[in-house]
Amino acid sequence: MQDMPHNSPIRRSLLSIVAEDQPADLVVQDFGISLSTVYAARREHSSIALDMVYTPGVKRPRIDESRIDFAMAFLDEVIPVVSGRNFRKQTMTNENLYAFYFCRCLEKRKEPLSKSYFEGSILKNQNIQHSKDESVCDLCSELAALENSRTRLKEFEKDKLAKAKQHKASWYQQTGYYLKVKADMADEQDQDTALIIQDFSQLSVQGSYFQDLIVVAYFCDPEDPTTIKGQYNHFVASSPRVKNDSNFVFRTWLHLVESEFFNGFKKIVIFSDGGPKHFKTTATVTFFGVLQKRLGLPVEYHFFESNHGHSVCDTVAAHAKKALNVEQRDSRYAIKNTDEIVTVLEKVKNHYAEVALAQEQEESPEFVTFKGIRSMRKFTFDDDTVYGFKSSTDTECSHWWTMDTKYFDDFE
Ligand SMILES: [Zn+2]
Q1: Alpha-carbon distance 377 to 298, whole Å?
Q2: Which residues make up the environment of ion ligand 1, defined by Cβ < 5 Å?
Q3: What pLDDT score was predicted for residue 90?
């Protein structure tokens, strides 16, 4: 945090989050900032976004048209008007929709509208049909319920409240850090970084499901380093019997290394959700330590807060599913196997597809679990050690473990 520029919007919102509810002296130690900064951040905390647009002495801040246009463009993308109808369908809560909008503003370097303006003047004037969100976050809805509770909270409810607040702070922190990595790349500070987001999806053809490991790579355009390019890669299982396990991840990444995917980069920063079967596991974390050695490049692995990952992989998966449906409808041909899936996906702009090298019934490796691994959100490596951090913004590790890399010795 102390390395961020003082006028960075991300620094300010991160500060408000970490300064809330934590002993001030710890915040000072953890983030290397002064006590007066912590107190100032606390005073400001009432609303992160309102504070950002607040100018003393101006009673009625005038809102710049371009900010409203940006908010409308955001709505058109995220909750578009249903085709042929006159309403938008909203499945997210207003809280989540605003958080999503706020993060998008940070990403695109736009000043966000305040939450009350966004809800009261933008959303209110739209014809919106609310429907139940299947992906609604339990912890966030619990937080809202406890915060709005009119009765005195019992002890166990206070514990729940603290946990839910921590969850929300982590969500903002991890997403904020991801956006900072991307912003630093575009600022030419970290031009040689490859930023990777990975997630599993399932592609359904003729009633069979094929696992698809989606690897999105962001990197600076060599022609114009202030522009970040995205490349969307699919690694599709060779049969419906291939599972989305750790081995799938290892085989895919080794293949990426062999195909010189990372040549020319100086650092690899990976983000994913905490997938308990294949991503945030001792085996996978150890694998990335081994990968760092093989590549001779620093590798960092970060995890989004649960239920609040990045939506890019979902979007990529949706493009793939649509392409498969359109192809089958137009050609009246039923796609049956991986080779046919790959052929269709390859036709989508900026998408690349390959058959994944993972095999059916490959034996799952057995590792002695790193104690405490589940509560970590960042991992870094050196020769034989894995360092775990509770937050991506932490500079001091919370745990470290010695890697047992024998399993990967004869991995080719
Ligand atoms: Zn949540």
Answers
A1: 17
A2: 137, 139-140, 307
A3: 82
